[in-house]
Write a structure and sequence with these properties.
Elements (H helix, E strand, L loop, with lengths): L1 E3 L4 E4 L5 H8 L2 H4 L12 H11 L6 E7 L2 E10 L7 E8 L8 H16 L4 E7 L3 H9 L3 E12 L2 E10 L5
Parallel strand pairs: 5-6
Antiparallel strand pairs: 1-2, 2-3, 3-4, 4-5, 6-8, 7-8
This protein binds coenzyme A (COA).
Length: 173
């Protein structure tokens, strides 16, 4: 899959991306607002494991965000299951060197049509740590609405945080 956005290309991960993945992802400021499944430090072995999973058989979608010819971030759609099978979660991160240029807003906005045509979902949500206003702003710019605050739902690096749930319903756009 390849989606051209105004500031990046969203495309499948490749094994050759491992080096640039480590270079951009090995950053405690990125890991600080991600789930603990995002490694920190981010080693070559982590990168190879991730790329192997992302390019293998998976119902979920994992795309690299390519900027200047390099995989400099990631964006993904994680399908829920059981009675939540028509819901999915969106997650993303970007190299710190590229923050504040509108790249993630473009990426999320450009992925929305694909998420709703590729999957039989009616709801796309994101759970943002309460100390991450930049991510909330990205979602608001893309038409997500702030739906709920799950109080003290997150403990990240020993700090208790709220989780702010944002949701996108294409039928309401
Ligand atoms: C969150 C993240 C993805 C944003 O990517 P980005 O490409 O810099 O985002 P954009 O440039 O498209 O938009 C950022 C917006 O947040 C705003 N912003 C940045 N820091 C902010 C802050 N401290 N408070 C309020 N708004 C802030 C910017 O001004 C911009 O809004 P604007 O266009 O209205 O001015 C990036 O910072 C990142 O990867 N962070 C670490 C990982 C992460 O948090 N992932 C999301 C987990 S849910």
């Amino acid at each position: 899959m390849e989606i051209i956005t105004p500031r990046s290309i969203l495309r499948n991960w490749r094994s050759l991306d491992a080096k640039s993945l480590v270079m951009h992802a090995d950053n405690t400021r990125i890991a600080a607002t991600m789930r603990d499944a995002f490694p920190s430090p981010y080693t070559m072995a982590d990168a190879e494991r991730f790329i192997s999973m992302a390019t293998g058989t998976t119902p979920h979608l994992f795309l690299a965000i390519e900027v200047g010819g390099e995989a400099a971030g990631g964006i993904g759609i994680h399908l829920q299951d059981d009675v939540k099978y028509r819901s999915a979660m969106i997650g993303y991160w970007l190299s710190e060197s590229l923050w504040g240029k509108g790249i993630m807003t473009d990426a999320v906005r450009s992925l929305l049509p694909t998420a709703f045509t590729r999957y039989d979902i009616v709801r796309l949500e994101a759970g943002i740590f309460s100390n991450n206003p930049a991510s909330m702003r990205v979602l608001e710019k893309c038409g997500f609405i702030r739906e709920a605050v799950h109080r003290h739902a997150i403990t990240k690096n020993g700090t208790l945080l709220d989780e702010v749930v944002y949701v996108y319903f294409p039928s309401e756009r």
